[in-house]
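Batch manifest line 354
LIGAND: adenosine-5'-triphosphate
JOB: complex structure
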Amino acid sequence: MNETRIEVKDLVVRYGDQVAVNGVSFSVGRGEHLTLLGPSGCGKTTTLRAIAGLEQPSGGSIRVDGRTMYDAAGRTNVQTEQRGVSMVFQSYAIWPHMSVFDNVAYGLRVRKQSQDDIKANVERALDLVQMRHLAERGASKLSGGQQQRVALARAIAFSPTVVLFDEPLSNLDAKLRAEMRVELRELQRRLGITSVYVTHDQEEALAISDRVIVMNVGVIEQIGTPEEIYNRPRSRFVADFVGSANLIKGRPAGDGTFVTEGGTSLKVMAPHTPHGKETEVAVRTAYIGLEPQAGENHVPGKVRQRLFHGDFVQYVVDSGVGAMIVRRPPTNLLPEGADVTLSFSPEHCVLLEV
Ligand SMILES: Nc1ncnc2c1ncn2[C@@H]1O[C@H](COP(=O)(O)OP(=O)(O)OP(=O)(O)O)[C@@H](O)[C@H]1O
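JOB STATUS: finished
ARTIFACT:
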């Protein structure tokens, strides 16, 4: 995993006056699944397309498997077809008038493989996505999930070293998307594919990635494993965009203590050094209990609202540190108006840097 397969350094991409990607650097290890996550317009698709050679950067460098694909200084810019990378798009981009087999074979024919190789490679790819039994079917007669599998088979048929995914599951309904995530992750691990994946869906990013890059307005906000991003958000943006968190304003008072605007003293953890005196702590909604626990921060409160979601219950609790959202399992339901003690450990009370 430590062997670097993709290296992006100080990447800048402009559209006219607008800077879409503003100095982005990261690397992807062999067999790693890295996800670029961020809101619409943050530059994640542009970054991915630049790696594929579909976008012309104006600064920085891109290396894949030790080969320089783009280098502003050295004026290198390798053509898309010569980069050895494969891409799966949101809109499947499969041809409805062709059979499943021909769709998958297309890229191999373009690469002038022999008939025998084409047959073997198409069948292997279709086996991997469990679509071989539908090889002769017309692509227009497939469900959304099956079409996406064909697109995936086509992307892996020529054994690319790197696969780039641009929101490949976003056209599927929620249930199928959840199923395909599991399949995709399984396939990616089994084949040891090095991949960069773009999504705006934070749940998807956390579920399927080895590491996640959170982007905002053309720059990287944070890079880390899904657990690091969730448990140790660096900024208000990350705490807010990934998962759900309560943000409490105040200032650090030394010795791992944080004093809220309302004067409540909390024990916190500080994985990052805060920039200013006024800052915030983030407390995940899933990490707050409603009864006292030894060694935790305690804040008295009253349940203002209870929303039953099925898989969990969401409480809005008015407290001395503001209105706090709390997610609990759907058992031992508390009524609205109940007096509670908000309880969360210092480890889950994360001081934000910015
Ligand atoms: N072809 C283009 N011409 C001009 N501006 C563009 C072009 N493509 C993207 N942009 C702009 O560049 C910025 C980054 O776009 P990009 O598509 O990379 O964002 P994104 O994070 O992938 O968003 P989305 O999820 O909506 O695709 C946006 O402000 C966008 O409007």
